[in-house]
Design brief:
single chain, 12 helices, alpha+beta, two-stranded antiparallel ribbon
Length: about 375
């Protein structure tokens, strides 16, 4: 009972994160579809059996379904939740064709599909802007308070008190930004511009690859310079700088995620680091417990939700049939050829895409199941 009382927050936190982000994503599709004159038959949070639902004045069925791992918007003319065309499209009347998604102009269909991932990005940028404006942006300055002996920084000649101004020409404003750049880049050579007591110094450095074990026993390969910063700065923002900072942060998370994915594809990073729904459940619960009171716990979970929103928007843009990016790929081919791709081609594409997505989900879940915290969590739950 003690274990449950201390960890009950995991499942509610996970459901809040997934439900809110799926709603934002699907609402992006829904809103632009309505602006383009498309009739929306169903707006569902979750899959499977409907638990609760109602019709709006436009005839759309809003529903909450039993399996909370996603959601969908079904447009008039869709055969299913993947938005593939119904076989009876040719029999529609002229009035029905005017509100059918598949009879809309190419740019309108592309806009409707792109709106889902865009909504996730807009939410992330807006939320970060509000946080930076209302609370400011706390960060650790990129100053080397301590240089670890025999580390990459020690070998490159970094001295205590050095402030990193840029890495490979990209401005560095915080220690967190510097750390994320180094962690993701593994042992990629870096050119650091240093402020040393007012003098600008350029140093070439190759981070060391080390194995980092987190509090749950998960091991990850990361790049490491070997410097520590114990200072703390608090940056206030104007509306413009808050927005600029939010865009920069969103861009950085996007490029870092793509870089990590490419490293897994090329073998530079272990694919065991990939997490699935169980990993998100764990991180959601950890975020909801990270603060010292209810307010800071809620802020921590909200901050986590922002970064999951960026990842959700990015992953959906991957050119895999079944995902939004796959639909946009078909529309690109349609634009290039001057006619839609054949139904047979799209059908095979969706089958391949579905197989890839399912294989990825199974692989990520298998990774989660083999992590030490899973065994500890379920052992504690049923003991």
């Amino acid at each position: 009972m003690e274990f449950i009382s201390e960890n009950w927050i995991y499942i509610p936190a996970f459901l809040i994160v997934i439900t809110v982000l799926v709603f934002i994503h699907e609402y992006g599709h829904y809103k632009v579809a309505r602006l383009c004159g498309v009739k929306v038959d169903v707006f569902s949070i979750g899959f499977g059996k409907e638990l609760y639902g109602w019709y709006d004045k436009n005839g759309c069925r809003w529903r909450i379904s039993a399996i909370p791992f996603g959601g969908y918007v079904k447009f008039f003319g869709d055969a299913g939740v993947a938005s593939n065309a119904d076989i009876g499209l040719d029999t529609l009347s002229e009035e029905e064709k005017r509100v059918s998604f598949h009879h809309k102009a190419l740019w309108q269909r592309a806009a409707v599909v792109f709106a889902g991932p865009a909504a996730n990005y807009i939410f992330a940028i807006a939320a970060l802007t509000v946080l930076h404006l209302s609370l400011g942006q706390a960060h650790t300055p990129p100053i080397a308070s301590e240089v670890v002996e025999n580390s990459a920084a020690f070998e490159a000649g970094i001295l205590p008190g050095d402030r990193v101004l840029s890495v490979n020409g990209d401005e560095i404003e915080s220690f967190e930004q510097l750390r994320q750049t180094v962690v993701v880049g593994l042992d990629e050579p870096l050119s650091l511009l240093i402020d040393r007591s007012g003098e600008k110094v350029t140093l070439e450095i190759v981070p060391h690859i080390v194995e980092h074990k987190d509090s749950d026993g998960n091991v990850q390969k990361i790049g490491q310079l070997g410097i520590r910063s114990t200072e703390r700065e608090f940056k206030e923002h104007s509306p413009v700088s808050a927005l600029t900072s939010a865009v920069d942060q969103t861009w950085f998370v996007t490029t870092a995620t793509l870089k990590g994915a490419w490293q897994m594809i090329t073998g530079a990073r272990d694919t065991k680091e990939l997490s699935g729904p169980l990993g998100i459940l764990k991180m959601s619960g950890d975020a909801a417990k990270r603060g010292s009171d209810l307010t800071t716990n809620a802020l921590s979970l909200f901050n986590f939700m922002i970064f999951v929103s960026i990842s959700l928007g990015l992953i959906n843009l991957f050119p895999i049939p079944m995902l939004d990016g796959g639909h946009l790929l078909f529309y690109s081919l349609e634009a290039a050829m001057g006619r839609p791709v054949s139904e047979k081609f799209m059908e095979y594409g969706f089958r391949i895409g579905l197989t890839l997505v399912l294989m990825l989900m199974i692989f990520a879940t298998w990774n989660d199941l083999n992590k030490p915290w899973v065994k500890s969590f379920f052992t504690g739950l049923f003991s």
